[in-house]
Amino acid sequence: MDEQLTMADTAESAPPALSDSLIDELCEDLRQRLDPAAIEDVHRAYLLAEQAHQGQSRLSGEPYIHHPLAVARTVAELNMDRDSIIAAILHDVIEDTSLTKEDLAAQFGDEVAHLVDGLSKLTTLKFKSRQEAQAANFRKMFLAMVGDIRVVLIKLADRLHNMGTMDALLPEKRRRIARETLEIYAPIANRLGIHTLKQKLEDLGFRELYPMRYRVLEEAVNKIRGNRKELLQKVARLIETRLADEGFQNASVNAREKPLYSIFQKMRGKHLSFHEVLDKFAIRIIVDSFDDCYRTLGVLHSLFKPVPGRFKDYIAIPKANGYQSLHTSLIGLDGVLVEVQIRTNEMDRFAESGVAAHWLYKSGADADSAQLRAREWLRSLLEMQQTTGSSVEFLENVKVDLFPDEIYIFSPRGDIYQLPISATAVDFAYAIHSDIGHTCVAARINGRLAPLSSRLETGQTVEILTAGGSRPSPLWLNFVVTAKARSAVRHFLKNMQEEEAIEFGRRLLNRSLAKSSSSLDAINKSTLDALLVEFGYDRPESLYRDVGLGNRVASLVTKRLLPDKIKGKARGKPGRERPLAIKGTEGLVVTFGKCCRPIPGDGIQAFLSAGRGLVIHRSTCPNVRDHRRGVDKWVQVQWDPDASGEYTVEIATSLLDRRGALAKVASIIAEHDSNIENIHFKDRDGLATHINFTLSVRDRKHLATILRSLRNRSVVMRVRRT
Is residue 366 flagged as an active site residue? Predict the structure, then answer.
């Protein structure tokens, strides 16, 4: 529903004359590119919408029908087709009136009905919070986009008109809508290459969300505009004259001013003052062909001195949204920095309208490159939503994907992959294919081995090394940046945890049943089925999973399965059952307390924690006392003789305050086949430096060897396990 809709008491009032003139102007403009039958359908859609919205008005007081007409006008300016314009006029009728999707399909066809349905919110569902409702609505919109990208183009036009008519709303609601616009809608317009809508949405969102900053920045730009504009026009005339002398008769040279939000973003992102932002003005040069773009660049660099490191070739390697242009920065007259963009007419049309440029809603080879890129992105969204749990998580992943300051990475075969800035080798692996991401173990960056957490830079050649038995690590979530990688890792870990929880739950139940000389195989099927119905499970695996995750206690489940045998016996006290052997390979359902960091060889105790499964502590850990009260959740455990894997442990050291002391300690640790996972400097008193190391070790014996070796070094004053 439109944020400004309100019901008026004038249901019988005649349609205002203004709306008639608005539809007449729209139809007149459409005569240049639509046939008479299509224009007649547009007018018929207006009559239906006007009747459906009769008596409804916006908070500003204007008749509601003015809003869909304004949206349709913007859609028409994007050169959209007949169905898109009709859907824009009718975009609120399913949600706000008695008309149904079937009514629209009968009158205007299935495509119009699908478009309008995709634009309608999930009004029939109830949500726990506004955030969840918002996320669910965006999820529906993105999925509708996958089926038909016109949905989001109409939605962007709808948001643009709402942003320009918010004066009647409360300040809090205006800020919320503005933030939503800057975080989601403007980035979507940018991702689809629709620069005109992106710039308008950003300007309106900036003005509403940061009104004081907007005003101050606007005044600052106005102050310098006069002198700078004159200098810029002189530079433009010099360029135009030189290009004409070089034979570029059709070249167009235009000076322009950078949008306020773009200046604000640069100031905030690079911590600059207004006067430190040098490229507030720019020149755009339009030429006839690709070849002319590069020739023009040579002319410019011979006319003015280029700024090193500021040249970008988006023609050879387009941006993720298909944008193409050459960017360079020149030192112009009086030392003023001038940013210059060079592109062809076709590139310019696409830069302004993106996927909507010369709209032809076709598929396959008939679609232009902009639509193909957009659909590729939408396919990635579809894959992402299939691997995310909640709508809130999906929306967060999409937000990450909407801010792609790109880097360009090459595969060994020469293929180019676009990734967000700060992307890692894991992000690159998932960009190639999910299976490669799941099984990656290392990377070669420009021929050199590198860890998977390595940040990538533009121009690097990256080869991903895989191993069949490997799988994603939860630690990857600490450094991956792409939405695809993050959602794929989470999905894999969630499924892996479920499988491990089921198997671990079986172990816990069988161990508990063994106290009464029974087992799951010996339990009568009807008894188990009755318990599943009572607990609300559809299958035994669901029960095992909850036991494995600590959501249900094995001893209490056993009591329900064997009431006669358990009756009268004491409830699970320490030492009454055989300890559970911990192998270290149980996966995500067994975790080790960070408070005490147990390792094989330590005395250990364990407690069931809801959602986490079994949490292992050292027997001497102070937190053990707090858990002793929950007898039912206490599980007797011991290390399996064949326990394997690597475990983290923390040691505290006091080193002589000498040059190279830290390097010597690190070298000793490495010599004993241990890895330093973290270093924390505690303090420095002039005589000693106190440092805590987090190491990976195999067991208590391995740790003892490292500590003994450290104590034998003169630079180490003290060392102990924390």
Answer: no
